[in-house]
Amino acid sequence: MKPWPRRMLIALGLALTLAGCALGQAAAPGIPLEPGTVRLLVMLKAPPPHFRPDAGPAGYGAADWNAQRRIAAGLARDHGFTLADDWPMPVLGLHCFVLKPLDAKRAASLANALSRDLRVEWTQPVQRFHAMEADGSSDPLYPLQPAARLWQLSRLHQTATGRGVSVAVIDSGVDAAHPDLEGQVAWEENFVDDGKPGAEAHGTAVAGIIAAREGNGMGIAGIAPAARLYALRACWQQRDGGTACDSFTLAKALQAAILRGAQVINLSLAGPEDRLLRELLDQAAARGIKLVAAADVQLPDGGFPASHPAAIAVAGAPIPEAMRARVLLAPAKDVPSTLPGARFGFVSGASFAAPHVSGLLALLTQLRPELTPRQARQAMSGTAGQVDACAALQRVGQACACSCIASRAPDDGRH
Length: 415
Hints:
Blueprint: H1 6-26, E1 40-45, H2 62-79, E2 81-89, E3 94-101, H3 107-115, E4 122-125, E5 128-131, H4 146-150, H5 153-156, E6 166-171, E7 185-190, H6 201-211, E8 228-233, E9 235-237, E10 243-246, H7 247-260, E11 264-267, E12 269-270, H8 275-286, E13 290-294, E14 311-315, E15 327-329, E16 335-339, E17 343-347, H9 350-367, H10 373-380, H11 389-395
Parallel strand pairs: 6-8, 6-11, 7-8, 11-13, 13-14, 14-15
Antiparallel strand pairs: 1-3, 1-4, 2-3, 5-10, 5-12, 9-10, 16-17
Helix pairs in contact: 1-3, 6-9, 7-8, 10-11
């Protein structure tokens, strides 16, 4: 292993500085983050998967799993850490371990020494990510949906509804019991803690924009109301109302979405460049999965994962001129959607532009399952980066009882 580059040591030092203040205060009960701690991800090469009676989810047996844990425990003991958690990453051929330093003040130097150990593939800090929220038909709220007017949603649904397409929502908990989401969530899992996924605002709103039920006489209609949602809780709602995630929880959810065969993955979040997540996104892209990420317009590259080459970066207007070449524009201001407890509300921000595009991708994938992510992005691009849903359907070879609206700009959205 090479020693950590200076930027990674700085990142770990910043994590140590923040852990006892803002991050610690923001942590919700049950979240694997404690005030005043720093966590390190350590990757070990996993044994080749093979089939045997005691095989676990990674494809290797209890003996192999225990052998990996013994190696990790030895690393922790030799370098001044304690073993906190672990998760197999068969998609990458790795086993990921979470370690905490015994002496937090020496975290950076301890991590650098551990990274040189030949038993280790690579190490990185557990980094923080945040949701991209702004501050702050017969369905009764349908006329208020920007997509109803700008994308002529009811006419799009005469051609496609996303039937049979799986969309993974990697976010905070989704209220699968919400009347407008009832029956829409095909699978839900919690990668944050050992509890049930629960119902949280951000994930529930994102899910509603993608796949809320249509024509049930309440609320809204999703962009792809017949799509199958995978509600993967990798983020959590903070006490201040914001939504946070980290490298470890996101990696577990990403791998699950890949292994489950999700056709579209929605990531309404942003943070720093992250090697573990980047390699998982590479694997998803290699399998033809369409990746959608909210872009942070305050960052030159839109933040990560929007900056990943395979990601379709999405924001609401206006955006800086420098971002126009690679960021698609979708509705992002005052968007009505589902909220926990059978409620509805208006949401704004790039977080809620992204699920519009994820829903549209479900429509396109229904019509042309072989459509590549690159082809899908080209099909959706309209004037000045605005998503033209009608034109997208026509470009994949489907007639639509709608008129193309590329010349009309979506509503502004604050990020």
